[in-house]
Design a protein that fits this description.
Elements: H1 3-18, H2 24-50, E1 60-64, E2 79-82, E3 86-94, E4 106-110, E5 118-131, E6 136-144, E7 154-159, E8 162-167, H3 194-205
Antiparallel strand pairs: 1-2, 3-6, 4-5, 5-6, 7-8
Length: 206
């Protein structure tokens, strides 16, 4: 019996108790039952509030990591939330220029794709490691892009070496698929035979 039914029963018994139609013991039992129902109701409300998942930031769901029926706990990652108005840009700065940079310093970037002038930003992180090959250091810049003019690539279904591009890549665009993690801006790349590369990838997958 839920709280509302218990409350209605108690009110009825309360009137009957005032008219001396029920005993004091029966009335006190009804009062105790109502209090227990109220405790159970409040506990259920608290449990429901705690099961409501709230994101710590405003944004959009970029990826769902769980599905209906999955068991989760407080350490389980459920969603990846992104803020489309804020992006990051990684640049490599010569070591000699590092003393002039500090975290939080204002910066700006330009885009050959957007071609809409400067995008304001700030230095978020400065890597303490200098690349011995180039003598540069990685600097991460946060960029405000409220109108979402900077293009990003959104990946959908993936199967081994195959990926579905949902956004940010047009038909015929050339993309880097090997060594992209260490690729730096303005570095020359060598375009290989697409057909042979695809054939090799399919052989590795099979």
């Amino acid at each position: 019996m839920d709280f509302q039914q218990q409350e209605a029963t108690f009110k009825r018994l309360e009137k009957m108790h005032q008219q001396k139609l029920v005993s004091d013991e029966e009335f006190e039992n009804a009062r105790f039952t109502l209090e227990q129902a109220k405790i159970a109701r409040d506990k259920a409300r608290l449990t429901r509030e705690r099961t409501t998942i709230r994101s710590p930031i405003s944004g959009i769901i970029a990826e769902r990591l769980v599905h209906i029926g999955n068991l989760v706990n407080t350490a389980t990652k459920l969603f990846i939330i992104t803020d489309p108005t804020e992006k990051i840009c990684r640049v490599w700065v010569p070591e000699r220029d590092l003393p002039r940079l500090i975290v939080g310093q204002k910066a700006f970037i330009t885009s050959e794709i957007a071609q809409t002038g400067r995008f304001p930003g700030w230095i978020k992180r400065i890597s303490p490691v200098v690349d011995p090959g180039t003598g540069t250091c990685k600097v991460t810049i946060g960029v405000k892009d409220r109108q979402n003019k900077l293009r990003t690539v959104k990946i959908g279904f993936s199967n081994g070496n195959r990926f579905e591009a949902l956004q940010g890549v047009n038909f015929g665009d050339q993309v880097v698929v090997v060594g992209q993690n260490t690729l730096k801006d303005s570095v020359e790349v060598r375009i290989v035979d697409v057909d042979s590369t695809l054939t090799m990838a399919l052989k590795e997958e099979s």
